[in-house]
Target: Sodium/hydrogen exchanger
Amino acid sequence: MPLLLSFALLLLAAVLLSSLAHRTILSTAVLFLAGGFVLGDGVLGVISLTPADDSVKILAELALFAVLFTDGMKVGWPQLRRAWRLPGRALGWGMPLTLAVTAVAAHFIVGLDWPESLLLGAVLAPTDPVFASALVGNEKVPHRLRHLLNVESGVNDGIALPFVMVFLAVCAGSGDLGVGELGLELLLGLVIGVAVPWLALRLERLRFFAASTQYEPLNAVAIGIVVLAVSQAVHGNLFIAAFTAGITVATFGPRQRHAFEHFGELGAELLKLAALLVFGALISPVFLAEIGVAGWVFVVVAIVVARPVALWVSFLRAGLNLREQAAAMWFGPKGFASVVYGLIVLESGIAAADVLFHLIAGAIVVSILLHSSTDVVVARWFDDSDETPAWHRHVRRLRGRKGANGET
Model:
């Protein structure tokens, strides 16, 4: 009950402040994260949760699944094929380089062994543009930049998973890395993400079936739930299945995509905010103090150095202008994939699990605070409709009034 009431009150506050948030650096993501922090055991003790609670992992996975499904809806296979060059650079070069730079920082700054450093790099490599929504959803931002960030984030969550599991097995001293099992999991996720939506959309075209206008938005919801259930039943990768299913619906069911768009965005937003509240409740002042000076130095390097350096190398001679490249380098927020993988590491029982989880949580907190508070600012950077600063326009209007009144 305290958790539900806390979520309801914070949601009401977010709704009342949403107009202001769209115009300023105020962020609803930060509101829920901070709310969870204040209401958690470390401060007020209203919400009592531990990382071992099943509800924490389940909510994080559901939120990530919903976000990836709705993100996949924003692109279709034809558009993906035509504009794959930039996302391909980000995934093929940027992500491995980000992993490597993060691992080097973890080894030399925190003193982790190389397997643990590489595991940490793999957990923090995926990006999540849901915390930069003002940038990804702003049509004044160049389409190729929005497409790049959206596709990259949707695909890199699933790509990072094999690396996380392999490095986790190495840290645990396991001789069986399970590469074949991981490959099968990814393949199953891909097949489910294509087959289930395609079959569902084909069924609706039969003469005996048709969705009413009232139920049309629920069509894609039902498809998503079936994809989720089947993936869990056969142990397919949930995140690959979610993003692929969204793309499949966008490709073969444009009507269903349009009907679901607003409804789906709101549903994903609710799950995202609930997951942020729960994650914030896991963080306490004592928890943050345990990260230590070296840990915080690593967090800063992981956020402001690793991805910028990696993407700068990846986009050499890619044709992006300075503003586009700078925005892509900066917006690499750590989100639900890192939360989920961090919980997997914590539950693994390896010797450095607690240290790694502290560093992961610290990086996610700093990333959410920084990226969610700067998305509006950077989005305005691309608005060339009127480059005159607001204060200058105000002074100019005052001077005009004085001139009209004959004042000097």
